[in-house]
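Reviewer comment 2.1 asked that we show a complete input and output for one of the modelled complexes. We chose the fe (iii) ion case, as it is the one discussed in the main text.
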Amino acid sequence: MGFNKNTQLKGSLEEALSYGANTFMFYTGAPQNTNRSNIEDGLTLEAMTKMQEINFDYSKVVVHAPYIINLGNPDKEKFMFSVRFLQEEIHRCEALGINKLVLHPGSHVGNGIDTGLDSVIKGLDMILENTKTNVVILLETMAGKGTELGTDIKQLKYIIDNCKYKDNLGVCLDTCHLNDSGVDLTKFNEYLNLFDKEIGLNRVGCIHINDSKNEINTHKDRHENIGFGTIGFNTLIDIIYNEKLESIPKILETQYVDKDYPPYKYEIEMIRNKEFDKDLINKIKQG
Ligand code: FE
Ligand code: FE
Ligand code: ZN
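Response of the prediction step:
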């Protein structure tokens, strides 16, 4: 969800609670740009107090870095812009008391995967060298749209293995992206076993739960409402309730219905009931 300049963390918490959520993810400004307002400590404190009162697990709340950060672009100016911005984003997380920051690893913009991955590693090392932090950067599994990096276990492993500050790195699994990148989610346990062997399940810090508008391996990245896409309700439920991932925050990033109606309250309810509701879209529209 977004981050209202005037309500900030408090507003995001209230929005999450209105959906019946027990965790949430937000951007510290608009996801598409890097305009950021100052964090108001008063609002942060109010949100924290509220969370304590209602036993809301603050350690599972997640921030998502803006999309235009690209550590994979070796162009010096663009690279340094991303390094600086991500560094500031870590400081904003600290000011908000958040320790999970989801990042799209980057795009190689035509320079090739190896060059791109090395650029990402260099950027992460630069940032973490200057910032002693508890914030863990969660590299998101990507669909493989354009020249995206981080589209398979091998690439994510390469980044983590070669970064000097591994303690600050983890992974965010995104079900739509996994599907679109070619992972058969009906065999999710096989994927998890491989992930555990290569990277370690302890690195998984967040899971984005989305259905997909596209078939497996199409490299598209278009999210669909839960149960209405090619992954399907039952496969998503198996992932959400997978015992190995019990303590990991699960975040819906599904689209608003008709651009106006947030689906989350209804999707959360449906997931809690573990029963697909084919009338869901109409219910969402009726409010
Ligand atoms: Fe993302
Ligand atoms: Fe995602
Ligand atoms: Zn996506």
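The chain has a mean pLDDT of 96. We note this here for comparison with the apo prediction described in Section 3.2.
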